[in-house]
Amino acid sequence: MPRRVGGTTIELDTVEFLLQQGWQSLKRNGLMALAAICNIAVAFAVLSAFVLLAWNLEHMARKQTESAVITVELTSDAIPADVEAAINRDLRVKRTEFLSRDEALNRLAERMGYDKEALKLVGNPLPDMFIVWPNNPDDIPALAEDIKKIKGVSKDKDGVRYGGQVTKKLLVVARGVKIAAAVLTILLGSATLLIVGATIGLTIYARRREIRIMQLVGATNWFIRVPFLIEGMLQGMAGAALAAVLVLVGYYHVCRYTAENLAFIDFVYSPEMVALFAAGTILAGIVFGAIGAMLAVRRYLKIV
Amino acid sequence: MIHLQGVSVVYPDGTTALDKVDLSIERGEFVFITGPSGSGKTTLLQLIYREMVPTEGKVLVDGQDVAKLPAWRVPLLRRKVGVVFQDFRLLPNQTVWENVRFALDVVGASRREKHRKVPIALELVGLADKANSYPDNLSGGEKQRVCIARALVNSPMALLADEPTGNLDPEISLELTELLANIAETGTTVVMATHDKMIVDKMQRRVVTLLHGAVVRDAKEGGGYHDRA
Ligand SMILES: Nc1ncnc2c1ncn2[C@@H]1O[C@H](COP(=O)(O)OP(=O)(O)OP(=O)(O)O)[C@@H](O)[C@H]1O
Ligand SMILES: [Mg+2]
Q: Are residues A55 and A186 in the same domain?
């Protein structure tokens, strides 16, 4: 049955013909296509592994940044509002949260699994405190020193506490990996385009007689190009799918190993993440395949 | 249906292939284009199916100035103008049926249309019984008939044949030319470039003679190869 697409009628028979042409194209240059697919797979495997790495480093850095806070204990005679105002005057401070000694006890009880009422009977040993989030985790040590000087802040050794000093290095590494991923995307992406383009160029050459006849009997340019675009997209898709499988299998083993042996490393791993990663990689493969084919078609179809 | 008005073609290397040609061919006419090798026959046909645009002058096909056709309209012109060549240009790994159907495949015809039109075209050229043969197993004359069927299956208004008998023996050549003349009887304009004197003399149809790219004779009432104007 004819279907209307963009104002012109497209016959089912025609869709079949185009798909068949694309597939035949792929088959005709079987070995070359296989080589191209393997090349694309390697390029995409390297690329997607980098993307995964960057993704995980980001994730770790984000988690650490969230936990990068300064806990400030107050003396029993302090006026919380004055201390808070003093802390907030510092431009390095993003925000503060007041934690009354009761609330602090509740949280502690919750975290430890104690009964709150029972704890209260024992008496609350905790002081009032502030949680301080810095704008930049790098500032934490200096900021903590300055907060210590504020009137009403406990002068105890642990009166002003902080943790999470790995963040900065992690962010630097994450940025490095992201830059590397971008550079690799450009290099391996162009390589993929060239590979797809060269393969399609060969098919175009192999099919020049057919193309010539098509042009003579009135096939539109669109019609002549579609099979090659399909061929390119199939190549890209196959290569990327192969890469996604390889990388995910490897990643799964890395995750399992670290979960068992290096529990402090927290990799992102969930069904959604696997699905998103696979879909993204394959989609990128299809897009790169289509672009490569388009470039080849523009370059080689004129000279047929 | 086909009108050339003051048409000149100069190739980039400076060769003048056609020189101020005026020519009118009406619907359903059968016309020979003759002339010695290099006189511009192929170039003239190429202008009509827009393989080439004139350096000067106008080429009108079915009222349209083909030089002004945007690229995306050229395929539509090609569906109105079938072409046949000396070297056949068939797909060797496809059957006769598939070769003819190919012209319908690429213009997006429906399955039903293909099943209706392919047999008609094969019948017309007398090859109904060879539908499942491969081109390599056909004689030269049969191959050329397949090409004619392929050119006709889209029901074009005109059929251009560039030395279609160039690879055939005299007897087969004449048969094939008669087939083309019969096709013209059905209302399809046929323009055939040839330098086969025997055929032109035998057919006694309109003859346009080119020499160095210029029309030196147009025997509208029919004539032989060397008749004087
Ligand atoms: N692509 C081209 N570039 C330059 N000159 C060309 C080109 N094609 C044809 N010519 C020249 O144009 C002139 C006409 O050529 P054309 O092919 O139209 O002649 P023809 O009558 O078909 O000859 P033949 O009988 O040998 O097929 C010739 O001089 C030829 O050399
Ligand atoms: Mg010629």
A: yes
